[in-house]
Amino acid sequence: MRRASFRDRALVVRSYDFGEADRVIVLLTRHHGLVRGVAKGVRRAKSRFGSRLQPFVELNVQLYPGRSLYTITGADTLTFYGRVIGEYERYTAACAALEAAERMCFSDVEDPWLFDAALTTLERCCGADDPTLVLDAFLLQAMEHSGWAPSLFDCAQCQRPGPHHAFHPGAGGAVCVACRPPGSIEVPESSLRLMWWLAHDHWDAVRGASISAQVAGDAHRLTRTHLHWHLERVIASLDVHDQGAVS
């Protein structure tokens, strides 16, 4: 029995060439999870919608299910987040957010929260003075959504109230003196507080605080460490972002 085509909102997270003129587009969709679709003929100059199938564009796509890949038969632009392209840190933060979303999403499994969070992150990156904070907020909230957010106040092992000054991703985040395993990272209370604000979208507190580069950098490194530990793989675009932020 042939499956019917459908429409969904989508973001392009990745693409690669397929055949002589086609391209496989990896889409984060709102109602169908991660979808891999073939856009036929989009590498030809006269393609009807090839220019729309780019990162940082919210799309309304029409998809036809196939055996292993969908076919993209239509794509309309809803929003273009073009301001992220003009500045390196915004661009790489947005790329890292989309790659992380891809790694946290499942094929054909509806996840409207993740899609909406990715859209919000792109919108915030367009106007952010510090895109790394926007990226960290997305990563922390996405880890919470996935069920493996770090504990940032109570001890992750014994639930002893904090604040604590050690962090280990394998132990679940912040740990007290009695529970801290070998290899724990010494961390100032202010960095864990910043992570808590970001994880709970307390942007007024973030903007009202005097956050040093050291505190923000520590928070970012802990967020990254926890993410990579639980994904068990590296987010390549996060490496690119961090290399540019350091240089």
TrEMBL record:
Alphabetically ordered keywords of this record: DNA damage, DNA recombination, DNA repair
Record-level GO BP terms: DNA recombination; double-strand break repair
Residues covered by the DNA replication/recombination mediator RecO N-terminal domain: 5-79
Entry annotated with the keyword DNA repair: yes
One Pfam family, short name: RecO_N
Coiled coil: none
GO cellular component, one term: bacterial nucleoid
SUPFAM superfamilies for the chain: ArfGap/RecO-like zinc finger (SSF57863), Nucleic acid-binding proteins (SSF50249)
TM annotation in the entry: none
General function of this protein: Involved in DNA repair and RecF pathway recombination.
Family affiliation: Belongs to the RecO family.
HAMAP family: RecO
NCBIfam families tied to this protein: reco
UniProt-recorded name of the protein: DNA repair protein RecO
Organism expressing this protein natively: Corynebacterium canis
